[in-house]
Amino acid sequence: MSTITKAACIGGGVIGAGWVARLVLNGIDVCIYDPDPEADRKVGEVLKGARRAYRKMLPDGLPKEGKITYAKTIADAVAGAQFIQESVPERLDLKHRVLAEIDTHAPPAAIIGSSTSGIKPTDMQPAMKKHPGRLVVGHPFNPVYLLPLVEIVGGEQTSAEAVEKARTLYASIGMKPVVIRKEIEAFVGDRLLEAMWREALWLIKDGICTVEELDDIMRYGFGLRWAQMGMFQIYRVAGGEAGMRHFMAQFGPCLSWPWTKLMDVPEFNDELVDLIATQSDEQSDRWSIRELEKIRDDNLVAIMEALGRQNKGKGWGAGELHNAYTKQLAKLAKPAKASVAAEKAKAEKPKKKKG
Amino acid sequence: MSTITKAACIGGGVIGAGWVARLVLNGIDVCIYDPDPEADRKVGEVLKGARRAYRKMLPDGLPKEGKITYAKTIADAVAGAQFIQESVPERLDLKHRVLAEIDTHAPPAAIIGSSTSGIKPTDMQPAMKKHPGRLVVGHPFNPVYLLPLVEIVGGEQTSAEAVEKARTLYASIGMKPVVIRKEIEAFVGDRLLEAMWREALWLIKDGICTVEELDDIMRYGFGLRWAQMGMFQIYRVAGGEAGMRHFMAQFGPCLSWPWTKLMDVPEFNDELVDLIATQSDEQSDRWSIRELEKIRDDNLVAIMEALGRQNKGKGWGAGELHNAYTKQLAKLAKPAKASVAAEKAKAEKPKKKKG
Asked: Where is the 3-hydroxyacyl-CoA dehydrogenase NAD binding domain positioned along the sequence (chains A, B) (predicted)?
């Protein structure tokens, strides 16, 4: 069960709207601030997709949704919120302005999470004059309403209590919080993604493969492994009975072979953008983005369910968490249903007497 | 249906044995050469695991297995083979010796695939004095009997015909061949893996996270995405209706941010090996390697089946291929069963007459 009943989301883009969806589908009221006049429509579309995915997870019905309201100012949005998630664009000056505002007007006990993919909380805290200790990075992965991972990162001024509160809070809405031990730019997830992304750009730029071929290499190969075990556990198994030391001894030397171009950075110019965008169209423009979103979400639910059936039904990895989460949501849905039924019964009773 | 009936596997380690398993489970006879006196036992263990996984895929029964024989020399192993897969350790001098031997004794029409993870075929071909044109790299991913991906790479002397034959051959045993357009060291898959691996080593070395935390970040996060769509398609969706150009414009600049340590290489020393091996033990030593292998294989089958049920049962990505592969194997299993039944009926007929 969620540890909160009222949250605020500052920023309603793809990530912000994903948070809104996860929160309201857990029965939490959310007040949104986003200056975009189209915010309402955009959030509505993400929420539609999220509802669709949750219906697949919970065929017997969803919990009563939290209420969504829109505020005209950040001050109004955060008033009375127990938790505020900031998801504005990745510009430090903007983060500063927004966090200063949030800090001034939020209840002192409220936890503030930032969705930043890479800015260190220590660099954001100077803007918070009142209670910087309650700021954590809570870095989610798209789609936020389905992918369980959230990286929690504290800054120099963050209190241990705030990290613990954030961990409990994110876990209470079905997520897998991983607390990062030392603060660095881009944390862990995006450091790994960035390494991969750069190498991928080289491979496309040099004409070694197309974006579709590269994607196929991922999804017919190591992607299937990483949905269930990470890199280290998978390599441990590959090392065989001799284990991790053997694996390291065998593959360690590759580190000094010319197996990567990552010693420098590909120039990010129009030519590269054109090449990738054109190849991406060839790969995917037979589907609209909305269709691809549905496909992605259906696949995610199916993969997590499949992992949930493993280990004699106890589940493995994200599947074990998925089982616990859907169970929790089903429980949350039931009392609502039961009370509706009870009310109906009450309403019908006099009629029966009459009949 | 497989395009061949008789293959040779040179090298019976984890990868070589994985090839043996995939081949014999497709009904293909395999002759193995491996100087390791324990090769028989080791191959047997991999085969046991593979059979177990295929039984999950094919509850109604497996095709009749190909016959396994062991040869005392490479010459004996390749005699009469239509296809030879080389999976010896990654040392160029060894590859040269082995490929020279294979080339001398294999039937001229036989295709030769090398399992190398990174050596360019052009660098291996000089050892082949007779028919270097039929050498391709056929780089698989562990476990070979389950993961569909195989990267096909031709060298300067490789004929277009050999590449096409190899593509058809690998596809005929349920694999997803991706032909790499230009020959580079480590091809595509291992370039990406190496980029990720280096960054991961930095993160562990610097104490940002443990191997278990890093693995969790993968399997509760982007690993779930990459089992179904690759990096480019996933980012296209994340870019929203504005598409890939928008995504590139938004995230391109990160390339010059300090989001990665990959500008140099972590020193590969005993300290790093110890750190990683110790953390890996903490993460995984509650399971034996054999247990982890079973868990991994069960999960892989479950994920591919889950993807196979998508798209109104047509399947998505590896799931679509999985549907076709299991169908093909089931068909291969049936005639065997049917003929057994027919033989039984024949054998029983006279008895009936007597009775």
From this structure: 6-183
